[in-house]
Specification:
The complex is a heterodimer of chains A (134) and B (137). By secondary structure, chain A is α+β, with helices and mostly antiparallel strands. Chain A contains two helices and four strands. The model of chain B has no long low-confidence stretch (mean pLDDT 84). Classes of the chains: A alpha+beta (134), B mainly alpha (137).
């Protein structure tokens, strides 16, 4: 029953997309974190997807190869009264773009839904398979 | 009688197996919709099915399945699906090199699922016909 492989592929995608959603949540909630345990302002994070090794039929799942830190420049806002302001009165804010993250979130949740749909279809196909000869 | 039964069912057996393999491929395309540089893959169902039927009906040509590139290949050529994979030509290529068109993949996924369903109905009908023929009236 290699239809079960579809479950494997769909679940790999679901797990990868939920990790992406997790990173988006972290980015969005830290969009205003000017400091952290390291003393640096929060840096945006992004997941990197890569394909798993293909099986005999050439089908492959997906995995998160790693989480990279966003290298884009940090935002500087002028706020001299802020405790974290430098001597010129500028505060270094995280380089998280909230609009980008919202788009990222929508894309991740759509992909997650697609995987669930695939699983449901496969499940009904498997159940139909069990009726052969009845 | 039994070998006739086998001959009847062989076609559906091969067709179902191929439908499952295609379902796997399409699900892999959907799963990798966000993977950079992933190329969507598919098979030409009719030609691969013809090839499979040819392989299984021609006796003496039955080959061994190889599960690793290090295995010695047998005489029967092209037994795995991996040799028959085709890449999709993207209509709207994306910047990250991914060629998955989600609308197309979902349509093909649904299409393949219905045809799998249909094949199972055909098999059931086949069995029903056989039992009908065997029944004493």
């Amino acid at each position: 029953m290699s239809l079960f492989n579809v479950f494997g592929i769909a679940s790999s995608s679901m797990s990868a997309q939920s990790q992406r959603l997790n990173v988006v949540a972290s980015n969005l909630s830290n969009a205003d974190s000017v400091t952290s345990s390291t003393g640096e302002p929060y840096r945006g994070r992004q997941v990197v997807f890569s394909t798993l090794q293909a099986n005999l039929n050439g089908a492959s799942g997906v995995k998160v190869a790693g989480v990279v830190h966003d290298a884009s420049p940090m935002k500087q806002i002028f706020e001299p009264k802020h405790p974290m302001a430098n001597k010129d009165g500028y505060v270094t804010m995280p380089n998280v773009n909230v609009v980008d993250e919202m788009v990222n979130m929508m894309s991740a949740s759509r992909s997650y839904q697609n995987s669930i749909d695939m699983m449901n279809t496969t499940k009904s196909l498997l159940q139909k398979t069990l009726t052969i000869g009845q | 009688m039994i070998n006739k039964l086998d001959k009847e069912l062989n076609f559906y057996h091969q067709a179902l197996g191929l439908r499952v393999a295609r379902q796997e491929l399409l699900s892999s395309n959907v799963a990798n919709a966000d993977t950079p540089n992933f190329k969507a893959k598919d098979i030409d169902f009719a030609s691969v099915l013809n090839q499979k039927i040819g392989l299984t009906t021609a006796f003496g040509k039955v080959g061994l399945n190889t599960t690793s590139p290090l295995h010695i290949s047998s005489t029967a050529a092209k037994n795995t699906l991996a040799d028959n994979l085709l890449y999709r030509t993207p209509l709207q290529p994306s910047v990250d090199g991914n060629t998955v068109d989600m609308d197309m993949e979902r349509t093909r996924f649904a299409d393949n699922a219905i045809k799998y369903d249909a094949s199972i109905s055909f098999i059931n009908n086949e069995f029903r016909n056989i039992t009908l023929a065997m029944q004493e009236r």
